[in-house]
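for the recovery benchmark. C-alpha cells below, seq after
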C-alpha cells in the first residue's frame, strides 16, 4: 500500500493500525479539554472513508456512533495498558470480544480486480474489533507505544528496527519536542 498522509479529512492516522487510529479520534486526551472528533454519525462515515475501510460513506446511524465510541474507548484503554505493561481489564476485553463476535464486513473482489469491504458501518466496526483483538493479542502488542509529545497521547505501533520510537509523528510531535529541548538548552 502507498504511503498515506498522517492527517486525512481532519483525522489523525499515525497509529500504524486502524484500531489505534480509531482511538486517536479523541485528541488532547491528556490535556484539560479533550476533543471528540466523532461528534455525529456523519463524522463516523467520514472516518471510515478516510481510514480506507469504506470506499463511500456507509450511512452510519446514531447506534453505530455509540458502538464506535464504546469500541474506541475500550481499544484505547486496552492498548494503553499494553503500552504500560499493565493487565487488561475484563470489562474492556469483554466489550471488545463482544463486538468482534458480530458479523464482520465481508471482503469482496471487484470487477476491476481490487479487494473491497462490503457492508455497513456495524460490519466495519466488527471487523475493526477483530483487528484490534489480533493487535492486542499478537506479536505487535509489545510494540504499542504512547506518543511522548504532551498532551498528544496518540498510540502507535513502533515498527522501527530498534523499537525506540518515541513520537506518533516525527514531523509533528518529534519536531516540537526537539525544538522545545533546543530552547531549554539555549536558556540553560
Ligand atoms: Zn504525538
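predicted aa per position
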Amino acid at each position: 500500500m502507498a504511503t498515506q498522509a498522517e492527517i486525512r479529512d481532519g483525522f489523525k492516522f499515525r497509529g500504524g493500525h486502524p484500531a489505534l487510529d480509531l482511538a486517536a479520534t479523541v485528541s488532547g486526551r491528556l490535556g484539560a479539554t479533550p476533543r471528540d472528533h466523532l461528534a455525529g454519525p456523519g463524522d463516523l462515515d467520514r472516518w471510515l472513508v478516510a481510514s480506507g475501510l469504506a470506499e463511500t460513506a456507509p450511512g452510519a446511524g446514531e447506534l453505530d456512533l455509540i458502538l464506535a465510541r464504546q469500541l474506541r474507548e475500550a481499544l484505547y484503554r486496552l492498548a494503553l495498558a499494553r503500552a504500560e505493561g499493565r493487565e487488561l481489564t475484563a470489562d474492556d476485553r469483554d466489550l471488545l470480544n463482544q463486538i468482534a463476535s458480530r458479523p464482520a464486513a465481508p471482503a469482496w473482489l471487484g470487477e476491476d480486480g481490487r479487494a473491497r469491504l462490503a457492508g455497513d458501518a456495524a460490519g466495519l466496526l466488527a471487523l475493526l474489533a477483530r483487528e484490534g483483538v489480533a493487535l492486542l493479542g499478537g506479536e505487535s502488542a509489545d510494540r504499542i507505544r504512547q506518543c511522548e509529545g504532551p498532551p498528544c497521547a496518540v498510540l502507535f505501533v513502533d515498527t522501527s528496527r530498534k523499537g525506540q520510537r518515541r513520537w506518533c509523528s516525527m514531523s509533528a510531535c518529534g519536531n516540537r519536542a526537539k525544538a522545545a529541548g533546543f530552547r531549554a538548552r539555549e536558556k540553560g
